[in-house]
Amino acid sequence: MTPPRVLTIAGSDSGGGAGLQADLRTFFACGVHGMTAVTAVTVQNSVGVSDYHVIPPEVVAAQIRAVATDIGVQAAKTGMLATAETIAAIADALDQVHIGPLVVDPVAASMHGDQLLRDEALDALKSLLFPRAEIVTPNLDEVRLLTGIDVTDRVRQYAAAEALHAMGPKWVLVKGGHLWTDPSCVDLLFDGAEFTELDGPRFDVKDTHGSGDTLASVITSALAKGRTVPEAARLGKAFIVESVRAAYPLGAGVGPVSPLW
Ligand code: PLP
């Protein structure tokens, strides 16, 4: 039987740790059929991103149209989008085809600090993709870039969720992994009315490459299977905890989380 079909609009990580490689293996682990619209090819290993090549925006849009018109897309996610032109082309393509719920993971930089989204593209991300999003899933570095709020405690995490929700997505998940002072790891879910804290353990480990991509991919897969956003977020949280536990070392730098445990 044909499984639910999901699309990731994202960059390639040559090291296989994050990006569309992480998305595809997570989709497989979740039992959905994964498809890709490649936005950029990074030159990357466990130590960092040394360069990237941006795929022409019209080629990104064509990939989206090709799979949506033939295979169908029950849910989609965005990862590394690189430029404002690419974001505009994606928004245009999404106007032309039917896709299910859109998960926007506002990838701005790698965990090593390598920039994956040009500064001028932040506005395009907010104005063109946030209003189309079922859910946006920023980490605290991305929250600072998007809202100017430096989340140093739970109160500011709530304020950031409100500020992000005002930008148009139906749901916001403000991930608390980078709130290093917090002994646990609380991701805050908000739909404009109700806050839900998703609590999980904090691991003192180095190998967490691709964790954001993996979480957003689980949420996308669950939405494609007809789960509600709170159900999908809870599944994602449970899944990422086990994926971090199953992470493995790779190369001289940071290893990836693993969806197989
Ligand atoms: N490289 C690509 C292509 C990505 O899409 C991402 C994140 O989405 C990263 C690198 C960064 O992953 P991490 O933050 O785990 O280093």
Automatic annotation (TrEMBL):
<dbReference type="InterPro" id="IPR004399">
    <property type="entry name" value="HMP/HMP-P_kinase_dom"/>
</dbReference>
<comment type="pathway">
    <text>Cofactor biosynthesis; thiamine diphosphate biosynthesis; 4-amino-2-methyl-5-diphosphomethylpyrimidine from 5-amino-1-(5-phospho-D-ribosyl)imidazole: step 3/3.</text>
</comment>
<dbReference type="InterPro" id="IPR013749">
    <property type="entry name" value="PM/HMP-P_kinase-1"/>
</dbReference>
<dbReference type="GO" id="GO:0008972">
    <property type="term" value="F:phosphomethylpyrimidine kinase activity"/>
</dbReference>
<keyword id="KW-0418">Kinase</keyword>
<dbReference type="GO" id="GO:0008902">
    <property type="term" value="F:hydroxymethylpyrimidine kinase activity"/>
</dbReference>
<keyword id="KW-0808">Transferase</keyword>
<keyword id="KW-0784">Thiamine biosynthesis</keyword>
<dbReference type="Pfam" id="PF08543">
    <property type="entry name" value="Phos_pyr_kin"/>
</dbReference>
<dbReference type="InterPro" id="IPR029056">
    <property type="entry name" value="Ribokinase-like"/>
</dbReference>
<comment type="function">
    <text>Catalyzes the phosphorylation of hydroxymethylpyrimidine phosphate (HMP-P) to HMP-PP, and of HMP to HMP-P.</text>
</comment>
<protein>
    <submittedName>
        <fullName>Bifunctional hydroxymethylpyrimidine kinase/phosphomethylpyrimidine kinase</fullName>
        <ecNumber>2.7.1.49</ecNumber>
        <ecNumber>2.7.4.7</ecNumber>
    </submittedName>
</protein>
<feature type="domain" description="Pyridoxamine kinase/Phosphomethylpyrimidine kinase">
    <location>
        <begin position="13"/>
        <end position="257"/>
    </location>
</feature>
